[in-house]
Amino acid sequence: MPKATNRRRKRGADEEDAGGGSGNKRSATSVLTSLDVNDAPRPELPLFQLNGRHGEDEEEEEEEVTGGGGGSSSALAVVAAAGSGQSPHQQRRLWVKDRSRAWWEQCSSADYPEADFRAAFRMGRSTFAMLCDALGAAVAKEDTALRAAIPVRQRVAVCVWRLATGEPLRLVSKRFGLGISTCHKLVLEVCAAIRNLLMPRFLRWPDAAAADAFKARFQAESGVPGVVGAIYTTHIPIIAPKVSVAAYFNRRHTERNHKTSYSITLQGVVGPDGAFTDVCIGWPGSMPDDQVLDRSALQQRAAAGMMAGSWVVGGASFPLTDWVLAPYAQPNLTWAQHAFNEKVVELRRVAVDAFARLKGRWACLQKRTEVKLQDLPVVLGACCVLHNICESRGEEMDPGLRCELADDETVPENPVRSDGARKARDDIAHNLLHSGLAGTKFF
Questions:
Q1: Where is the composition biased (Basic residues) (predicted)?
Q2: For 171-224, what is each residue's pLDDT tens digit?
Q3: Which of 258, 337, 379, 412 is deepest in the core (most CB within 10 A)?
């Protein structure tokens, strides 16, 4: 077969693999939510699921099928056309580029320092081994006649290292000795497995017993009753999309950084231990925090009456509702209101610190990524799950990796949406002041 024809076939296959084909185009507004359908109403949102191709077709971008000989320094695999009646001169030959995997072999050796392993993958060997065991059945592939399958540990390592460092795919390729498109495919496959298998285990809304424990811990630390979590919304930078570009334009980041910025939102609720209990990922960056909240599955949970008796503490960009406790925003605050706002800042610090560790531990969240917009919710969701795993297993993060957040708050159009919530907030502020729990600096 002529080489020109093979190049055209190769190029067409690459374009189909990169774009998913015209028949697989998804909505640009793919949103991922962590709420389990068994304990919450089905959100009227496009719940994103990764539809990846299966089968051991890695290294396809580096393969060349030829009809004749030809010199090359790459490894040569010859596949006989058995039973096809072809002559030996018509045998198909497969060229695979020879790459070095020395770095990964060194990392996976038993004598590799634990500190270096933790610095590379943001987790220790025991946590990494647990992750591989949990994902093994979902990401493992079988050997083929042409090559041995990439081991599960290497597949997971490619994904974790990419998320941890945020390095471009060409550097991931050099580190692990794999093709660029192979590395990209592995990242998406492992992230999808994390979302499908581990999110229901490690990132879920607390049940009744856990919610009572959360409320007791928050009240013991702040004096505010009924708090089950703190909410915060951050922005993840993206490359300017080809569709609905104005919706993803982030005006506040653009004005602050003097550089055109596009982003998607990541809204998360955090418990007292710094782990996420709910996430909503994928709404355009131009959308203010209160509108993201209105479109989240958490809001639908509250609308169904499943948040009664519980508060989620938010900042000034969130409205005061029957279940969202927001600070006083008007000028000339009374002493009680000022004291209440200080307590809200303390409670909200749990979520801010969690997001700072999330972005610091997984550096891919700090820079524009090569992942397509429709695939980003699953990748970001996997980062949140990995954060929870590391937090639950006591994986300490290097303080130098901590990311300082720079998300601008916007004032909601309707800051107070419930008269009952207004009275409840006033009662909490009054009780804090007169019970000696205010903690204000001017008393």
A1: 1-11
A2: 999 999 999 999 999 999 999 999 999 999 999 999 999 999 999 999 999 999
A3: 379
Residue 290: which of 257, 250, 318, 264 has the closest Cα? 318
Which residue from 154, 350, 374 is spatially nearest to 269, judged by alpha carbons?
Answer: 350
Sheet strand arrangement including 75-79 = 64-66, 92-96, 75-79
For the segment 137-181, what is each residue's pLDDT rounded down to a tens digit?
A: 999 999 888 788 999 999 999 999 999 999 999 999 999 999 999
Q: What angle do CA 236, 237, 238 make, to 5 degrees?
A: 115
Per-residue confidence (pLDDT) for residue 34, from 0 to 100: 77
Q: Which two tokens stand for residue 267?
A: 């809204």
The candidate with the shortest Cα–Cα distance to 203, out of 124, 260, 273, 256, is: 273
Q: Tell me the pLDDT band of 311, cut-offs 50, 70 and 90.
A: very high
Strands 64-66 and 324-325: unpaired
Q: What is the DSSP letter of 24?
A: G
- pTM check: above 0.85: no
